[in-house]
Amino acid sequence: MAGNARAVTVGVEEEFLLTDPVTGAPAPKNREVAEAAKAAGVEVDLELTSCQVETSTGVHTDIRELHTELQRLRTTVADCAAEQGARLLAVAVPPTMPQGFPVTDTPRYQQIAEHYGMIAHEQGLCGCHVHVGVPDREAAITVSNHVRPWLPVLLALTANSPIYQGRETGYASWRSILWRRWPSAGPPPYFASRADYESIVAMMRAGGSILDKQMVYWDVRASESFPTVEIRVSDIPATSAESAVLAALVRATVTTGLRAIESGRAATAVPGEVLRVAYWNAAHSGLDGPGLDPIGGAMVSHRELLTALIDHTETALRETGDLDFVTEYLDVLDRTGNGARRQLAALRAHDDIADVINEIAHATLQSP
């Protein structure tokens, strides 16, 4: 099923905020930026609000090549945004914002806005989605059980939204808190089978909590568009290198889960309430603080949980040649901090939101 980890494919979708280059306020220019990017040879997708765009990498087996493409996409789209009088920011919530966002004028997004009301109009949240190739839909659904316990530490690793409406939120990932207002968001249930998965999705649709299968917003889901399992728990990471590290860890976690399935080892059925506590801790303290180990039940640092994830996936990371890439960059993060720590440091230095926006802009295009 999993085969050689080196051959397992991975791709990344990154969502970005468009802002006014002077005030830092969200700028509703996604169509203009998408058209400029297309002329530059890059396909950019529109998101729910007109202040957001999304890029998608190709399919990769080499994480370093993926990293190179992530950097290129960020640079190209940032240049296109600048041409349209906007600034591209890799940030998971707007540091400054008006009350509400304009919804992108497409029939589907307008239907979502009408049905979900203020949840849609207060969106403007940017995440990162990692797709890992799997043999079939059954594998995508089953392996989600093995990925579930590691979702909170992946959130802590990428936390990049501590500041909202110009002030500290008290959370490293405020996006995670806001995102879970959607009725289908958060960790998925533990699935007994594919039929179990499909029956729950059908119930959600019948009950109106989703309008279509694309609105299954679980943080692990079987993709409706690609032969992949999609992990979507993360804030948009501050730098392209962090996104590449996330992709390496996600691929290794999925590969390790597939091998457990092959060996007949069932995933630990972590109760939903335990995961919700672990999520809250991850969103609250981020990589620099304590978290709940969903399997062991003890409170430990998120850095220890991250080390445990690397230990859990070490065989797969070695096979892909990603172990050194991951551990070396995590050493860098220990020194510099992820996006949440860097934003807070910028704000606390001079109590000036402009410093925060400049820090975000610098990290967005930071070279390796």
TrEMBL record:
<protein>
    <recommendedName>
        <fullName>Putative glutamate--cysteine ligase 2</fullName>
        <ecNumber>6.3.2.2</ecNumber>
    </recommendedName>
</protein>
<dbReference type="Pfam" id="PF04107">
    <property type="entry name" value="GCS2"/>
</dbReference>
<comment type="similarity">
    <text>Belongs to the glutamate--cysteine ligase type 2 family. YbdK subfamily.</text>
</comment>
<dbReference type="GO" id="GO:0042398">
    <property type="term" value="P:modified amino acid biosynthetic process"/>
</dbReference>
<keyword id="KW-0067">ATP-binding</keyword>
<dbReference type="GO" id="GO:0004357">
    <property type="term" value="F:glutamate-cysteine ligase activity"/>
</dbReference>
<comment type="function">
    <text>ATP-dependent carboxylate-amine ligase which exhibits weak glutamate--cysteine ligase activity.</text>
</comment>
<dbReference type="InterPro" id="IPR006336">
    <property type="entry name" value="GCS2"/>
</dbReference>
<dbReference type="InterPro" id="IPR011793">
    <property type="entry name" value="YbdK"/>
</dbReference>
<keyword id="KW-0436">Ligase</keyword>
<keyword id="KW-0547">Nucleotide-binding</keyword>
<dbReference type="GO" id="GO:0005524">
    <property type="term" value="F:ATP binding"/>
</dbReference>
<dbReference type="InterPro" id="IPR014746">
    <property type="entry name" value="Gln_synth/guanido_kin_cat_dom"/>
</dbReference>
<dbReference type="InterPro" id="IPR050141">
    <property type="entry name" value="GCL_type2/YbdK_subfam"/>
</dbReference>
